[in-house]
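From the methods appendix. Each design record in this collection lists the tokenized structure first, followed by the designed amino acid sequence. Records were kept in a plain field format so they could be parsed without special tools. The example shown here is representative of the layout used throughout.

RECORD:
FOLD TOKENS (163 positions):
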């Protein structure tokens, strides 16, 4: 699961959420290298001719484009959220690269998780309601992970003593 509950003190809980990253950076280099090496195979047939210089830029453009796409994906996946439950407060901080942080705070008693099965940007969209505002949480998680997150949030917010 790309989220984890931590007990920060006697009754305080912290939930950290992050998007799943299926391609670690070490393997990204291997993928780019493999694309380059497999792209060289057809160029072996035109080795020593002028046609090589016409095809080589397209291979290099493909490799550079793939590398930039992977790096852009890593930057956009560096978003994370921290949800903190204290004895009386519920606090959500959404960290997004380039846009800074957004913060939501509410009395824990009034904070309620809600699941929007339809009509949200994603199926089983989870939000937190309280203090007159509704904020999203875990929108980058998969559908099954959002369902599990909703169940966890419901249980943790209901129980005033941390488990």
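DESIGN:
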């Amino acid at each position: 699961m790309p989220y984890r509950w931590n007990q920060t003190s006697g009754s305080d809980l912290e939930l950290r959420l992050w998007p799943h990253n299926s391609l670690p950076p070490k393997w990204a280099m291997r993928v780019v290298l493999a694309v380059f090496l497999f792209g060289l195979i057809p160029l072996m047939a035109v080795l020593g001719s002028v046609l090589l210089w016409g095809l080589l830029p397209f291979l290099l453009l493909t490799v550079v484009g793939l590398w930039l796409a992977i790096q852009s994906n890593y930057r956009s996946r560096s978003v994370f959220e921290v949800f903190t439950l204290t004895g009386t407060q519920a606090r959500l901080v959404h960290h997004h690269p380039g846009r800074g942080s957004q913060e939501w705070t509410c009395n824990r008693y009034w904070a309620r998780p809600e699941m929007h099965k339809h009509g949200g940007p994603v199926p089983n969209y989870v939000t937190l309601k309280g203090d007159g505002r509704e904020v999203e949480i875990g929108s980058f998680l998969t559908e099954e992970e959002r369902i599990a997150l909703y169940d966890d949030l419901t249980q943790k917010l209901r129980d005033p003593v941390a488990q």
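APPENDIX NOTE: The chain has two domains: 3-21+81-158, 25-76.
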